[in-house]
Design brief:
The complex is a heterodimer of chains A (80) and B (176). Chain A is 26% helix and 36% strand. Chain A has 80 residues and is α+β, with helices and mostly antiparallel strands. Chain A has a four-stranded mixed beta sheet with strand order 1-2-4-3, with helices on one face. Chain B has 176 residues and is of the alpha/beta class. Chain B has a five-stranded parallel beta sheet, with helices on both faces. In chain B, helix 2 packs parallel to helix 5. Chain B is globular and about 70 Å long. The relative contact order of chain B is 0.21. At the A-B interface, helix 1 and helix 2 of A face helix 2 of B.
């Protein structure tokens, strides 16, 4: 999926991925897409919940297997 | 309804819809694990755009005390209490398995290895995100904790009425 900016939160536990996302999204323009990479499984539920509360659009979540474990990539479109 | 009235109504509805949700947390405990839970919820809520206030009372005040700052309470009893009751965000003990400090040290080591933020880091993040800290003046007085021994960033010194006024408007209210 296309992304205008990327955020690496590998190795961070809840709530850091969400906090870093909320800071990073401020740097984007409306309509741009942010890719957040995380290895915390909680992000599968937490990121959609964050999007629902803040009003940003959750475009999708991709999972891949790496040598050190599962990696999740969330795509968020800034809406405001 | 005339035009001006409906306009006012729509403005009001819009205000209602965009009003940030509020979270109030009372932190009574001075335990590392409980304080961590409080700060994780606070920072998470702030990152979700919610307005967060934490009220520190009793042992919870230890989280916002500067480490090693001596109590300047006027009478010796309270000064003694302030001395015995050690403060500082990085000195909080685990509620279980503290083992005279060994258990807590081990937990802090594991947290560091896993890049998990500790209480001091979470507290700093909370302040950065605009979480408001309120210190309870009654328990400060009881425990010989004076204003000058608290960290910078404590927004208000207040009592139960301030807490209730805020809690009344909150959709999430926790006592930890």
């Amino acid at each position: 999926m296309h992304a205008d900016a990327k955020l690496d939160t590998l190795g961070y536990f809840c709530p850091m991925p969400i906090i870093l996302t909320s800071k990073k999204i401020k740097e984007l323009a409306i309509g741009q897409v942010l890719e957040v990479t995380s290895d915390d499984e909680g992000i599968k539920k937490d990121m959609p919940a964050w999007c629902e509360t803040t009003g940003h659009e959750m475009l999708g979540l991709e999972e891949e297997q790496s040598a050190s474990g599962r990696i999740y990539k969330a795509y968020i479109k800034k809406t405001k | 309804m005339n035009a001006t009235q409906s306009e006012a109504a729509s403005v009001l509805a819009q205000l209602e819809a965009t009003k940030p949700e509020r979270v109030t947390i009372v932190l009574l405990s001075g335990d590392l694990d409980r304080a961590m839970a409080a700060f994780i919820i606070a920072t998470g809520a702030a990152a979700m755009g919610m307005q967060v206030t934490i009220f520190f009372t009793f042992w919870g005040l230890n989280a916002i005390r500067r480490k090693g700052a001596p109590s300047t309470a006027k009478d010796w009893l309270r000064r003694m209490f302030g001395f015995l009751n050690k403060g500082g965000a990085d000195t909080l003990p685990l509620s279980r398995f503290h083992f005279g400090g060994l258990g807590t040290k081990m937990m802090q080591k594991v947290m560091k290895q896993n890049r998990m933020p500790g209480v001091p880091e979470l507290m700093k993040t909370a302040l950065d995100l605009g979480v408001r800290f309120i210190a309870c003046t009654t328990t400060m007085g009881l425990m010989g904790i004076t204003k000058d021994t608290l960290i910078e960033g404590v927004d208000q010194f207040a009592g139960v009425t301030t807490y209730l006024a805020e809690a009344k408007q909150s959709s999430v209210n926790l006592f930890i």
